[in-house]
């Protein structure tokens, strides 16, 4: 979908500017053309490279082994280097890379499932966990700032926000 596409197009950074993304999004909306179709027609090298990557990944993820496909994708985009360059704290870099590896391992263990089933079951498990949390009465939920993005809560508080804690300047 369009939101997911915009979320990943510059991860890791590919040199696709925000102004370019704004212009293609406006074109997409004004002419009612799917964003993917707009990207496929673009001639900029960074965009062409991204489109080619997605097409190749689509082929690799059509059938198992999905763990190998994900490993290929992580290596192809050099995601470990991107984490090392973009995350300032060594502890957080390690944490992020361990999460990536956990995702690869989980996908590799689910080889009997289709990719859609894996994603659905993973989402279902998270939803079940969230429903369990909701049903256990009044309480304060603690989570990271990044975990709260996109979720809806009646109120959120950032506690102890000091210089250098939030990874944005």
Q: How does this structure look, described?
A:
By secondary structure, the chain is mainly alpha-helical. It contains nine helices and no strands. Helices cover 63% and strands 0% of the residues.
Helix and strand layout, with pairings?
Elements: H1 2-8, H2 18-30, H3 35-41, H4 45-60, H5 66-76, H6 79-86, H7 90-109, H8 115-134, H9 145-148
> Sheet with the most strands?
none
Strand content: under 5%
Uncertain ranges: none
Topology as H/E string? HHHHHHHHH
Distance between the termini: 30 Å
State the share of residues found in helices, binned by percent: 55-70%
Average pLDDT, rounded to a whole number, is 83
Silhouette:
globular
Number of strands: 0
- Structural class comes to mainly alpha
- Rounded to the nearest angstrom, the radius of gyration is 19 Å
Number of helices: 9
Can you give keywords for this protein?
single chain; 9 helices; 0% strand; mainly alpha; 169 residues
Outline:
The protein is mostly helical and 169 residues long. Helices cover 63% and strands 0% of the residues. The protein is built from 9 helices and no strands.
């Amino acid at each position: 979908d369009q939101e997911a596409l915009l979320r990943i197009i510059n991860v890791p950074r590919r040199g696709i500017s925000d102004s370019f993304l704004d212009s293609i999004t406006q074109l997409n909306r004004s002419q009612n053309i799917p964003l993917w179709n707009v990207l496929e027609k673009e001639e900029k090298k960074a965009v062409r490279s991204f489109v080619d990557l997605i097409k190749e990944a689509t082929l690799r993820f059509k059938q198992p082994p999905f763990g190998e496909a994900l490993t290929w994708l992580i290596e192809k985009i050099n995601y470990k280097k991107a984490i090392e360059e973009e995350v300032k704290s060594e502890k957080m870099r390690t944490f992020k890379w361990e999460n990536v590896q956990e995702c690869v391992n989980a996908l590799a263990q689910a080889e009997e499932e289709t990719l859609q089933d894996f994603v659905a079951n993973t989402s279902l498990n998270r939803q079940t966990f969230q429903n369990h949390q909701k049903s256990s009465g009044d309480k304060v939920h603690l989570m990271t700032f990044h975990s709260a993005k996109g979720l809806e809560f009646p109120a959120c508080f950032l506690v102890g926000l000091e210089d250098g804690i939030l990874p944005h300047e």
